[in-house]
Specification:
129 residues; mainly alpha
Length: 129
């Protein structure tokens, strides 16, 4: 092979690699989409209005917690090498209060179903697009 043929072959191989990378990326995107559809398959379908109500309930619940109250935290302090006071650990101690507040706000929107094992369970989304 001469120099021109080698350069042509190199350009052709580079082009083939680029085309295969593009095709591979398309397959990866399709795989991600299919995995997400599988993940969503058994989820309970709720209308967008319900999601908006849940979002608003969570916002209200979080707003009602006083995050500025120092008694809500366990704080471990230390002194750094240059004599600066540092926070080693900051832990929210009343996280159950936050959870309870959120659940309370969501329960104002929804009611819990009586769902004994012998009765039919909640409706799941059976359609995959």
């Amino acid at each position: 092979m001469n120099q021109y043929e080698l350069e042509t072959k190199i350009e052709g191989l580079k082009k083939a690699i680029t085309e295969h990378e593009e095709m591979s990326q398309a397959h990866k995107d399709s795989l991600i989409e299919a995995e997400q559809k599988l993940k969503d398959y058994n989820k309970i379908a709720l209308p967008p209005m319900v999601f908006d109500e849940i979002h608003e309930a969570v916002e209200v619940a979080v707003d009602e917690i006083d995050f500025s109250d120092a008694s809500n935290y366990n704080i471990d302090l230390s002194i750094d090498y240059d004599n600066k006071v540092c926070i080693d650990n900051l832990e929210l101690t009343h996280s159950t209060d936050l959870v309870n507040e959120i659940v309370e706000k969501i329960s104002e929107i929804f009611t819990e179903m009586d769902c004994p094992e012998d009765e039919e369970g909640p409706v799941v989304n059976d359609t995959v697009e």
